């Protein structure tokens, strides 16, 4: 553990991400105000002791909404990475293990998916399926499959050529056992690094989709939607845009630094190269 | 609040009136008007889109009857009309010396051809029913048009004053959607798709005094922030009607601009599917009516601009009856009624909101919050306009939605049980038929009032507010309309003080 915290990127990233996670967890049991409760008398108030981040056009407390918004972001991050990881690793391993035709098909489909601009296709998918958080997660998650599939395949292929695998094979261990016992544990760290980075990307993607009205639906708070709503109030109530904007920047930066830190620590070769 | 709005209204109404008295209109100048939606075509007799009327109606095209700023019907291309004692025959005296922009003279024959064209089986007119009540049309001379109706129609003149009843020339009407030719004060010059429509003064206009302006350009800017930016930068002179009221309250503070908080014919309502459970239960609908606080809705959604309504009738339309007190805001009463209807713990439903209208999205969120407080949990679904038109308007697949009905005199939609909110009431149909056949003003007022009462009592839809006109303009723009009793951005009498 000490190894991790001696890395500045990791320490900063970990702390920033922890703040986001804690805010989200806390919001499940407590927020300063009911995040969805409207109050006509309190609308568009600037930051004050009662409302540290001000209120929005319906008089809802921005701090409470930013906290609740963290839940949407984290759920989207977790689910999309889970979709990408589970299917991506499976396909990547299959690709590496079977090679030839299977590899060819899986990789060409991946290329095809890579060929589409991710956000644009996500917009297409949510337009067809209807805007909702679940569809947004599905749309983003699908694009993560080839990312993880390629990574898994690349690392697994090099592993298969390594001596300890050959040794295991010589010792009569079956191919499946080799895959589960020797290959998979060894690709965990690159997957963890990639997963953290993709987590940050998912937060950004969810914000983009929600900003366009295709992600999280009202009244559930989401940072992207808050930005969208704040647009016409920019000159009057800038806090409505500034705080959700900062929240997005904070979370994305945090998880990216965390990913960087993990890479620096788990992949010593990279450090030496620097 | 109502008083404040009224005070604001009278105040804003007074300013231009005083200025008008003090100054005589100046001729010349070019005016750039901005509106959010680009029209799908420029022929109001072939498409229902209000964006078309806002550009061309009264500017390029005119009808027999015109709507005055105060909402009364005044001569347009007809200088006078007489109604026979049985109320079935209208004799129009047509204006002399009127020519279309292409030189074609406007006569009784042109008028007859226009009315018959709109009633024909093959017509593209969005409201052929306006014309199908006509039995026959006679033209004793070039300037007299005798229209005999099959039955008394109290709204015949009102319909003749709509954009759907404008006069097109017999030659060249085929291209009206892209090359409009009318009799109006402005002549069409160009339509740069995606950007603007340009028109210039009609030198041969039948009223030699008008128009004052040399040129009018309609510019299409969808984003409300971009509209304000363009106005501040001087790229446009008028925002015809505003999409985001929060901008208007900002602009009121700016001394360089004028904001008019006038009335319109539009009613913003929470449309309710009257055939779907539990909304088929009158008690449930009345409970919802009690759960809605209109003043707060207007505050939160429209920043205080707008007038509360209690039925499907705008205060700017004649025969208006104030029914806002029928179901006063009372959450306790709402819960009681829900319990009586068999929903003591409330229920869940979905409200679908068209994404293109910000007032609708916002009102939906506010209403969801209000109904939530009496136990009705609304799931909000924001949908695209195409989806709305198809799934909600055509296929009636919805619980609740939120929309503005902009046409004046449109209470007749409640007589159609197939209309998207599927209200079926013989009592209403009878009252509406009586209103249409009312021989005199007193009976018209009585029966149109009764129509308003019946749908208010049945709480067919959630009646929220009448939309404000909210034009914003430079101080130099004079004589712009404050109230919008008809769907038009009429620049005929507008002039520039510069």
Write a compact overview of the structure shown.
Chain A has eleven helices and no strands.
**Structural class of chain B, please?**
alpha+beta
Q: According to CATH, what is the topology of the largest domain in chain B?
A: Dipeptide-binding Protein, domain 3
Total domains of chain A:
1
Based on Cα principal axes, name the global outline of chain B.
globular
Gyration radius of chain A, rounded: 22 Å
**Percentage of residues assigned to helices of chain A:** over 70%
Largest sheet, strands/sense/barrel of chain B: 7 strands, mixed
Helix content of chain B: 25-40%
Low-pLDDT stretches of chain A are none
CATH class of chain A: Mainly Alpha
Main-sheet strand order of chain B equals: 8-9-10-1-11-19-12
Task: Using the coordinates shown, work out and report the CATH topology of chain A.
Answer: MetI-like fold
Average pLDDT for all residues of chain A? 88
CATH superfamily of chain A: MetI-like
Percent of sequence in beta strands of chain A: under 5%
Annotated CATH architecture of the largest domain in chain B = Roll
- Number of H/I helices of chain B: 13
| Straight-line N-to-C gap of chain A | 22 Å
Indicate the overall shape of chain A: elongated
Total E-strand runs of chain B? 21
- Count of beta strands of chain A: 0
What does this structure look like?
- Chain A has a single domain, classed as MetI-like (MetI-like fold), CATH 1.10.3720.
- Chain A has 11 helices and no strands.
- Chain A has 274 residues and is mainly alpha-helical.
- Chain B is of the alpha+beta class and 498 residues long.
- In chain B, β4 (78-83) and β5 form a beta hairpin.
What tags apply to this protein structure?
heterodimer; A: 274 residues; MetI-like fold; 11 helices; elongated; B: 498 residues; D-Maltodextrin-Binding Protein, domain 2; seven-stranded mixed β-sheet; 22% strand
């Amino acid at each position: 553990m000490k190894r991790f915290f001696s890395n500045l990127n990791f320490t900063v990233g970990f702390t920033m991400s922890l703040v986001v996670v804690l805010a989200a967890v806390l919001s499940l049991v407590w927020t300063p105000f009911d995040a969805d409760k409207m109050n006509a008398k309190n609308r568009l108030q600037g930051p004050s002791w009662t409302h540290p981040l001000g209120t929005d056009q319906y008089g809802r407390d921005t701090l409470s909404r930013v906290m609740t918004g963290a839940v949407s972001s984290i759920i989207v991050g977790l689910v999309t990475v889970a979709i990408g990881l589970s299917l991506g690793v499976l396909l990547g391993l299959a690709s590496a293990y079977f090679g030839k035709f299977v590899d060819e098909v899986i990789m060409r489909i991946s290329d095809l998916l890579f060929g589409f601009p991710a956000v644009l296709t996500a917009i297409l998918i949510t337009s067809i399926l209807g805007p909702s958080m679940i569809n947004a997660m599905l749309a983003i998650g699908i694009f993560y499959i080839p990312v993880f599939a390629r990574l898994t395949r690349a690392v697994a292929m090099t592993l298969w050529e390594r001596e300890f695998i050959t040794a295991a094979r010589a010792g009569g261990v079956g191919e499946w056992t080799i895959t589960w016992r020797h290959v998979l544990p060894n690709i965990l760290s690159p997957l963890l690094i990639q997963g953290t980075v993709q987590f940050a990307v998912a937060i950004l993607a969810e914000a983009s989709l929600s900003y366009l009205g295709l992600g999280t639906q009202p009244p559930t708070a989401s940072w992207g939607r808050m930005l969208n709503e704040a647009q016409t109030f920019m000159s009057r109530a800038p806090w409505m845009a500034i705080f959700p904007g900062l929240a997005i920047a904070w979370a994305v930066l945090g998880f990216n630094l965390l990913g960087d830190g993990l890479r620096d620590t788990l992949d010593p070769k990279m450090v030496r190269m620097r | 609040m109502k008083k404040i709005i009224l005070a604001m209204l009278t105040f804003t109404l007074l300013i231009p009136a005083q200025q008008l008295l003090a100054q005589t209109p100046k001729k010349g100048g070019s005016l750039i008007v901005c509106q959010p939606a680009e029209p799908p075509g420029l022929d109001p007799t072939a498409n229902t889109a209000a964006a078309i009327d806002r550009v061309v109606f009264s500017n390029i095209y005119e009808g027999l009857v015109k709507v005055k700023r105060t909402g009364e019907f005044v001569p347009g291309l007809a200088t006078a009309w007489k109604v026979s004692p049985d109320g079935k025959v209208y004799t129009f005296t047509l204006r002399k010396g009127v020519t279309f922009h292409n030189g074609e003279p406007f006569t009784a024959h042109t008028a007859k051809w226009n009315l018959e064209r709109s009633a024909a089986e093959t017509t593209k007119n969005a409201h052929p029913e306006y014309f199908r009540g006509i039995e026959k049309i006679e033209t004793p001379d070039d300037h007299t048009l005798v229209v005999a109706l099959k039955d008394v129609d109290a709204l015949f003149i009102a319909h003749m004053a709509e954009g759907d009843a404008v006069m097109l020339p017999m030659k060249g009407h085929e291209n009206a959607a892209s090359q409009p030719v009318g009799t109006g004060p402005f002549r069409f010059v160009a339509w740069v798709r995606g950007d603007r429509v340009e028109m210039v003064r009609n030198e041969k206009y039948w009223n030699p005094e008008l128009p004052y302006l040399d040129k009018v350009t309609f510019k299409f800017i969808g984003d409300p922030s971009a509209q304000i930016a363009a106005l501040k930068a001087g790229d446009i002179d008028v925002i015809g009607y505003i999409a985001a009221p929060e901008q208007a309250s900002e602009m009121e503070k700016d001394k360089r601009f004028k904001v008019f908080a006038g009335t319109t014919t539009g009613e913003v309502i929470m449309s309710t599917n009257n055939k779907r459970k539990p909304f088929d239960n009158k008690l449930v609908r009345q409970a919802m009516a009690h759960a809605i606080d209109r003043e707060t809705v207007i505050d939160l959604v429209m920043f205080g601009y707008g007038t509360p309504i209690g039925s499907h009738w705008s205060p700017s339309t004649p025969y208006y009856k104030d029914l806002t007190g029928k179901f006063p805001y009372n959450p306790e009463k709402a819960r009681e009624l829900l319990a009586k209807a068999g929903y003591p713990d409330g229920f869940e439903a979905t409200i679908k909101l068209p994404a293109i209208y910000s007032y609708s999205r916002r009102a939906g969120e506010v209403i969801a919050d209000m109904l939530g407080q009496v136990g009705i949990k609304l799931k909000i679904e924001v949908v695209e306009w195409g989806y709305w038109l198809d799934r909600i308007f055509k296929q009636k697949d919805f619980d609740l939605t939120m929309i503005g009905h902009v046409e004046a005199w449109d209470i007749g939609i409640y007589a159609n049980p197939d209309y998207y909110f599927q209200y079926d009431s013989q009592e209403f149909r009878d009252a509406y038929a009586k209103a249409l056949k009312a021989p005199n003003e007193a009976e018209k007022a009585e029966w149109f009032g009764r129509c308003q009462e019946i749908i208010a009592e049945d709480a067919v839809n959630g009646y929220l507010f009448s939309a404000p006109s909210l034009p914003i303009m430079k101080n130099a723009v004079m004589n712009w309309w404050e109230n919008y009793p008809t769907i038009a951005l009429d620049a005929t009498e507008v002039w520039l003080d510069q």
